[in-house]
Amino acid sequence: MTAGASRLFADLEVDVEPDAALGPRTWFGVGGRADALVRPRSIDALQTLVGRCHRDGIELRVLGEGANLLVEDEGVGGVVVRLDHPAFRERQIEGRGGADSVRAHAGVELPRLILETSRAGLAGLEGLAGIPASIGGAVKMNAGGAFGAIGDRLHAAAVLDRRGEVSVYAAADLKLGYRRASLPGPVLLWASFSLESDDPMRVQERVREVFAYKRSTQPLSDHSAGCMFKNPPPDSSGEKRSAGQLIDQAGLKGLAVGAASVSRQHANFVTVAPGATAADIVALADLVSDRVFDHAGVRLEREVVVWGRGRGEEGVRHDA
Ligand SMILES: Cc1cc2nc3c(=O)[nH]c(=O)nc-3n(C[C@H](O)[C@H](O)[C@H](O)COP(=O)(O)OP(=O)(O)OC[C@H]3O[C@@H](n4cnc5c(N)ncnc54)[C@H](O)[C@@H]3O)c2cc1C
Asked: Domains of the chain (ranges plus CATH)?
């Protein structure tokens, strides 16, 4: 980090870690460092920081729980923001349910919110049980699966634009799609959800069922970033095949590059063993994509977001 960059933060309520290791902060557990990892201690400080990065042309990225993220081995420049101060972990839960019954800041962990809403007898988020995420990352990726996506329950979201100004948007304004949301700015600050009042025991039972299903179908205890690829749209005959089925049918379970391999439990998961590098994972993903194309004529699109030095991030749309 240059002296100029460190002056960016000198008068702000932030904690700064120069040359910070990002790998251990991701679920893959591999990858390089950030020039500066910055943890704002207030919303004001975050707003000023975002505005200054824009003014000075400094790259800004937001790190959630790192559950859908691969940081390349050479790391990233600029500023990586992590919203884990209590100011970004506030949430309000209104037990009667209805529109806007839950509001959670970006740094709240989704599993914690599911636990708290289910105990309060609020139904609607339990289909997301077992998905590791911050609220910011979950909305940005429109996280979900067989039992629905977070966007199905999203009511509104507050987003900081590049100048650090906050605006509140209705869910319909965020163009939610399959594993994507178009945030009209670089940082999601909070999101609110519409949940329904239900019997707490029933909601908690449903959480347990969804989690058990997930644990039986996915390698949850390995280092991974969940599904590597998005499921492709149906082919011209209307037939739908998931990315996992296509990878399995191409005979790629167990395929490895270095210490990264295609999971034998769920073919769309790339899992890593000690000693893996981000380059192993990228090379394996490219190999899988090419082999599936050769076998089925389908080009898979990566779901995992990849951060690399000097070239922004891949895997998410840039609407901001
Ligand atoms: C074991 C395992 C199982 C998984 N299962 C599922 C699943 O079933 N369904 C599913 O959809 N996903 C799944 N995933 C992937 C992952 O859990 C989701 O994509 C999740 O939403 C990522 O959230 P995060 O906070 O970790 O975001 P990160 O991985 O930290 O970041 C992802 C993207 O969101 C952006 N982002 C994060 N916070 C903010 C913010 N506040 N403002 C703006 N942008 C932000 C980042 O910049 C990045 O572009 C799984 C992952 C693992 C490791």
From this structure: 7-86 (3.30.43.10), 89-217 (3.30.465.10), 243-303 (3.90.78.10)
